[in-house]
Each structure stands twice: as structure tokens, then as C-alpha cells.
Amino acid sequence: MEGSSDFNLEGKVAVVTGSSKGIGAAIAEGLARNGSRVVISSRKQENVDQLAAELKAKGLEVWPVACHVGDAGQLQHLVEHTVEKFGRIDTLVNNAAINPYFGPLEGTDPGAFDKTMAINVKAVLQLSALALPHLEKNRGSIINISSVEGLKPTFGLGIYSVSKAALIMLSQNMAKEWGPKGIRVNTICPGLVKTKFSAGLWQNESILNMYEKDTALGRMALPEEMTGLAVFLASDAASYITGGVFTADGGYCL
Ligand SMILES: NC(=O)c1ccc[n+]([C@@H]2O[C@H](COP(=O)([O-])OP(=O)(O)OC[C@H]3O[C@@H](n4cnc5c(N)ncnc54)[C@H](OP(=O)(O)O)[C@@H]3O)[C@@H](O)[C@H]2O)c1
């Protein structure tokens, strides 16, 4: 209900990409714990099956669907299968991303550039457009997982940073174009979070020390520390919030 301060997600259905582990898995569990039915999705069927079984054992209503976000056919299947299973889509969390290259800008392989933009930006638009008619029916919302890298670049993460900055602008364009349809679109920018994706950063002592020194809270995050914002943005309590860019970075961007 518009204008409600209700954080409860009961009755809603969410799709979270890249959610078999890391931040996506934490957000999927957080949404489900707050009452949403959630489609768990990532490239590998065994990974989504495993997390879905763990969450079902906790009494949560989740459903596994494998989907490589770089494959248009699999994106379509994800949307169709969700609607077949649960009858609706209220929340789309675009979380899957890649970072195939770490190093100076001038060494960027053109193939790695294209792949990064295809997964981190193009796939988000494609999936959101496929979900659009379903979201429109329910005045639903999209949450895009960008990064502090989209706001403040780090040496070596150049093209990844560019893709995450593009994602922020894509989110704001979606918010503007789809607001009149009643759809809200917001962006979460995590700081350094302890996952497999970022292991190359936090397992390097000097990089970790530098991050901790630059961060007001003096530490990296755990994946579950990203869920509060996502649950809030998916809920009716956020009914007037769109186009927002929210950091969850322990004060790294200060
Ligand atoms: N960790 C950080 O410090 C950090 C900081 C800022 C932003 N982020 C952002 O947070 C998001 C999640 O990152 P994470 O750290 O949680 O990563 P992660 O722990 O490595 O998990 C990545 C997830 O995405 C899936 N995946 C990978 N490629 C995919 C593809 N092409 N299509 C669909 N699913 C795919 C993986 O499962 P499969 O192998 O089964 O596909 C896995 O479930 C990303 O957007 C990342 O840019 C992370």
C-alpha cells in the first residue's frame, strides 16, 4: 500500500540474480525471512538447488531456477518460470556481476571489456525489461547492486568501476522512465564485502589494510550486512523512494 510504513514482504515475489552465494544469497534469505517468496538464481543448477534446499529447511519459501544472465534465452526462462511458479513478480534484484580483469586500464583486453559491460550493464537492462510488465501490474521495484567502485575508483578495477558507474546511471534512467508506471528503481553500492568475488582484495593484506584505514568503521562487511537496505527498498515502507543511490560501505566513501 502506498505511503505505508510496512516492512513486511508477505504476498510479494522476488527474483534475485547471482543468488547462490555471497551478497545475492544473503539478500535472497533476507527477503524470504521478511515474508517474500524468492527465486534463487545463478548459472549452475547444483548451486541454486543447494541454497534453495538449505533455505527451505529453514522454513523459507524459495524456488531454484538456473540462469546465466548473459544468455537472453535464459533471462526469458527465468521470468516465465517465476510467473508460472508464483504467479507474479514484485521485486527484481539485479545482483550478478563479473570482474574478469584486474590491472592498469591500458592493459584491458577488449574481450574482457565487452564481457564486463554485457553482464554488469546490458543484462540488467534486458532482464528488467522482461520483468517490466509483471512489475507494472504490482507497482513493483527493482534493486540494482552496483558498488562503491561506481562512485570512487580504485586502481586496477578500472573497467569494473566503469560498468558499475554505468549501472547507477541505468538505474536512474529506469527510475525516471518507469516511475510513471508505478515502478521504483534503486541502487545499492556495497563497500568491500567478504565474498569469493572480492577474495583477491581482502586476502591481500596490504589492500585490506588500506581499505580498513580508509573506512570509518575500520572493517570490511559480511554479506548479510547488505540485506537491510534491500529488504527496506523492496518493502512498502520505501513507497516514495526511487532513483536513490545508497551506499552500504562502513563510511568508505566519506
Ligand atoms: N564482494 C564485494 O566486495 C562487492 C563489493 C561491491 C559490490 N559487489 C557486487 O555485489 C554483487 C555480488 O557479488 P558477490 O561478492 O556476492 O559475489 P560472489 O560471492 O562471487 O557470488 C556471485 C554469485 O553470482 C553468480 N554468478 C556469477 N556469474 C553469473 C552470471 N553470469 N549469471 C548469473 N549468475 C552469476 C554465482 O553463482 P554461479 O557460479 O552458480 O553462477 C554466485 O551466486 C556483484 O554485483 C558485485 O559487483 C560486491
List the helices and strands and how they pair.
Elements: E1 13-16, H1 22-33, E2 37-40, H2 45-57, E3 62-64, H3 72-86, E4 91-94, H4 110-137, E5 141-145, H5 158-178, E6 184-190, H6 199-202, H7 205-214, H8 227-234, E7 245-248
Helix pairs in contact: 1-8, 3-4, 4-5
Tally of separate domains: 1
Fraction of helical residues: 40-55%
Strand content: 5-15%
- CATH fold title: Rossmann fold
Pairing-aware structural class of the strands and helices?
Answer: alpha/beta
What does this structure look like?
With 254 residues, the chain is an alpha/beta fold. The protein has a single domain (13-196, 224-245), classed as 3-Layer(aba) Sandwich (Rossmann fold), CATH 3.40.50. Helix content is 44%, strand content 12%. It is built from eight helices and seven strands, in the order βαβαβαβαβαβαααβ. Strands 3-2-1-4-5-6-7 form a seven-stranded parallel sheet, sandwiched between helices. Strand 1, helix 1 (22-33) and strand 2 (37-40) form a beta-alpha-beta unit. Helix 1 (22-33) packs across helix 8 and helix 4 (110-137) runs parallel beside helix 5. It is globular, with a radius of gyration of 17 Å. The mean pLDDT is 96.
